[in-house]
């Protein structure tokens, strides 16, 4: 299950109000509104917001699509609800380390994947060293093992923040 691999995952119909969606599941925005703890809302946003990339036939790799992220939110909704009631573990993880947006985003996702029943975090923030004393040439954000298939996934993550200085027409 998603609740720290200990509690049973409940079905999507547990204590959920009907919405305007045909399948009566709450929208992403409705789910965000249900959560009271800002850091838990941040976690839900990190997991469930639309991906910045889409698959293209020229890519020699796979890109996770919006459906994959939606599935994770639905499957792990009990985790988000439980964290909203008892957020201490999440707050501790977020307080530990730099507060830069990208690093915080990575910690949110690390917390999620460590709690997810289908994944094992094999490596996080794995630095790649150049030859000799050339230093770090890159970093793998996450190396994950998909426990259902045994596949090893390399996941790069990014969080973009846009700020408008004024209410411009081009914004």
Write out key terms for the chains shown.
single chain; 171 residues; alpha+beta; 3-stranded antiparallel β-sheet; disordered N terminus
Counting DSSP H or I runs of 4 or more residues, the number of helices is 6
Q: What gap, in angstroms, lies between the N and C termini?
A: 41 Å
Total E-strand runs? 3
Shape: globular
- Please give the share of residues in helix: 25-40%
Q: How large a portion of the residues is in β-strands, by DSSP E?
A: 15-25%
Strand order of the largest sheet: 1-2-3
- Name the helix and strand elements from N-terminus to C-terminus, one letter apiece: HHHHHHEEE
Question: pLDDT below 50 for ≥5 consecutive residues: which ranges?
Answer: 3-20
Could you characterize the architecture of this molecule?
With about 170 residues, the protein is α+β, with helices and mostly antiparallel strands. The chain has 6 helices and 3 strands. It has a 3-stranded antiparallel beta sheet, covered by helices on one side. The radius of gyration is 18 Å and the shape is globular. The protein starts with about 25 loop residues before the first helix and ends in a 16-residue tail after the last strand. Residues about 5-20 have low confidence and may be disordered.
Give a short synopsis of this structure.
By secondary structure, the chain is α+β, with helices and mostly antiparallel strands. The protein is built from six helices and three strands, in the order ααααααβββ.
Question: Secondary structure elements and their pairing?
Answer:
Blueprint: H1 28-34, H2 38-48, H3 66-75, H4 77-85, H5 88-95, H6 101-115, E1 119-129, E2 136-146, E3 152-155
Antiparallel strand pairs: 1-2, 2-3
Helix pairs in contact: 1-2, 2-6
């Amino acid at each position: 299950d998603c609740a720290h691999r200990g509690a049973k995952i409940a079905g999507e119909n547990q204590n959920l109000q009907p919405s305007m969606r045909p399948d009566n599941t709450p929208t992403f925005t409705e789910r965000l509104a249900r959560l009271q703890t800002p850091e838990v809302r941040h976690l839900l946003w990190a997991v469930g917001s639309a991906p910045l990339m889409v698959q293209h036939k020229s890519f020699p790799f796979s890109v996770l699509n919006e459906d994959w992220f939606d599935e994770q939110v639905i499957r792990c909704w009990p985790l988000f609800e439980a964290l909203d009631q008892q957020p201490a573990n999440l707050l501790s993880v977020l307080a530990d380390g730099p507060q830069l947006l990208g690093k915080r985003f990575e910690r949110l996702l690390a917390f999620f994947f460590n709690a997810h029943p289908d994944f094992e975090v094999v490596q996080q923030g794995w630095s790649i060293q150049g030859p000799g004393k050339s230093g770090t040439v890159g970093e793998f954000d996450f190396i994950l093992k998909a426990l259902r298939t045994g596949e090893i996934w390399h996941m790069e993550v990014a969080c973009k923040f846009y700020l408008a200085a004024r209410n411009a027409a081009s914004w």
